[in-house]
Amino acid sequence: MLAVQGLAVRFGGVTALESVSFEVRPGSITSVIGPNGAGKTTAFNAITGYLRPSGGRITYDGVSLAGLRPSAIARRGIVRTFQKTSVFPALTVEDNVLTGLHLRGTAGFFAVLAGRGRLIAEERALAAQAAAIVEFVGLTRRRRETAGALPYGEQRLVELAVALAARPRLLLLDEPGAGMSPAEKIVVSGLIRRVREQGVSVLLVEHDMRMVMGISDTVIVLSGGRVIAEGAPAAIQAHPDVIRAYLGGSAGSA
Amino acid sequence: MTRAGGWLVVVAALTLPLWLRSPYHVHVAIMAGIFAVLAMSLNLLLGYTGQLSLGHAAFFGIGAYTSALLTLKLEWSFWPALAAAVGLAGAAGFLIGRLALKLRGAYFVLVTISFAGVISLVSINGIELTNGPLGLPGVPAPELGPWTLRTKTAYYYLVLAAVALSYLVCRRLVRSRIGRALVALRENEPLAESVGVDATHYLVLAAVVSAALAGLGGSLYAHYTRFVSPEVFLFTYTVTMVIMVVAGGKGTLSGPLVGAVLFTVLPEALRAAASWQWQMLSYGVLLVLLVFFLPRGIVPKLAAAFPGRR
Amino acid sequence: MAELLQHLLNGLVLGGTYALLGIGLTLIFGLMNVVNFAHGEFYTLGAYVSFAALALAGVDFFAALAAAIAAGAALGWLCEIALLRPLRNESIDTTMLVMIGVWIAMQNAELLGWGGVAKSIPHPFPTAPLVLGPVAIAPLRLFVLVLAAGLIAASWLLIQKTKLGRAMRATFQDRDTAALMGVSIGRIHSATFAFGSGLAAAAGALLGPIFLVYPSMGDLASLKAFSVVILGGLGSLAGATLGGLLLGIAEELGAGYVSSGYRDAVGFVIIILVLLLRPSGLFARQERIA
Asked: Within this chain, do residues A153 and A173 fall inside the same structural domain, yes or no?
């Protein structure tokens, strides 16, 4: 589904990623782990069009994603979340998700200016879809509250809801468990599994090993801008290079 | 504002000339209407996308000059000239949008100012076209079928129609998927992009509509004052528009209307008491005070005090 | 050829003062991330203070220049403390609006205080131009050129050699680290704004006697300052100096060979072209500032 070949990202003198290659198979949950500064978020940024790679190829269903802006990539079905909590802070939870449903709407400029009946019907349908998604992440009782005022864990759920609203076929989650309590992480893990059950492939970056090993089909390990291991969770846990990367040079986290 | 209040305003606006005492007052109402269109146009950009255009006078001026030149030199009738003015201003908005909306924040502002500066210089120096600083006098009044709209009252209704049209356009846009996209871009652009909102497309759209509405205001102004000169590009017009939007409430639908009425009526009312320099001085001070004490403007403050529909 | 040299020389005189404007703004915009639309008003202030000193108080040129710089720096310092510091954590749009307010207020205050009629600043120099080979230059302009060069050099020295300058550079490169190293960011901001405004005032005092002094002279000065900053790169002193000189020369050449009516357009065109063609190539930060 998603194929990354030889991805390289360099800024000035710094090489963030060098010759990174991996694949995401349809219907799988793939995790990318690695010590801080290994380049995980950089890889996300390159895949989703927020960064131009210095080298390599990224293809989705065989078609190259080179040069596409993030909204075009989203239109192809790849949606990402951000490492720092990213919601529309001044909007309500409902409106956040409604905004996420942008691609599901069809109203263009002239339709908006002219239209009455068809527009109202579409808006009503979108509102219903938004309610369903808010329900899915368990925030129905918060749906009229301002997103920016919610506690951290719930904001991250809003973020997930917004991403889901965009109907991804491939969902990229950047540290979905960061800053969450163990209970919240269980909720998130459950949501990720349910998302996969609905046919969405997931690629996530995460530091929490238990979370990663618990839900992943495949684990990819990045260190120093390179892939140093790829495989099933059990194999990775025992992999000597991985252990060295975490306990060796750079500061790791478990 | 409740539905009843809204209808009250509509009725008042429709019957205004009947209970104003003199043509001078109708004149003030007309100017308020023209500025309302301009303020709404600026609000679309500043209030909903968050990008500040300080070159809006350029679109206003393009609209005014286009309309004036077409009716004066090519003897077009008013309505096609109006359409051309709106179209050309919108095209200029498209140009600026496409070119400048790779930029954000201060750099976008600078490009808009520079664009207005260049257009202004063209109007001053391009004597064969624009008659330079002397301007274009004798711009004809609009005709509606067999009648010519020469009286202030007639013109008032024309302007009122334009205000209503502009308001409806803005309202439809803002309360739609397009409006959501614009607000999303203002609130968190990377997030908006990640769910498929194409920033360039929507910002350019906002720029085009915004510029087109400003062009509408320009044409109305030209055919009302019957005279167009490079003075339309004066920064004071842009400043006034900004104050109207910021004081009224940017990002609200009625904010610009309130701001336009306030800052057309107030200066006229205070004209006896203070020269326009004092007024402009107080505008400057007011802008600073607004930023500190009333950053969201008057309408949101009132809405909070009297909860109801906006 | 002589004509070209003459234009170049005139351009240098103009450019020297544009460089002063640009250096001040590049520091303010670059270091404080404030879009200072009032920059031109400090230029105007300098011109009017100089006028007051020379025409009304009858002091000599240097004293007038010093008074102008002092006035600009003092008012700039006040602006920063009263208006910008409380808004430090607000978005750039907010500070932009505030500075627009200051711009309008200052200009109309000057209009009210001095009237709209342009004033001419008296100067002690003979009007007969000095002939230097193929070119001629009025003594006043030569004097202005020399002073501008001196002020530019002094600015460089301040930024490169003094403790304050080092602190300013450190804050520009990495504010958080600078703060951790004990730099008082607030004081650096005040100093930067005062310094930049003082330079703008100096430019006004220098150009005032050459041209006329009127309340709206600052509008173009602001935009030209932005033009210089954009051309030379945000936060770059060398860029602002070079950019200022280039703008001055470009204007003179444009006015001489193309059309004098459009001379002010040169700055606008520079802004538009540079921002559209090479926006990210010219400065360290991304174009998205907010």
From this structure: no
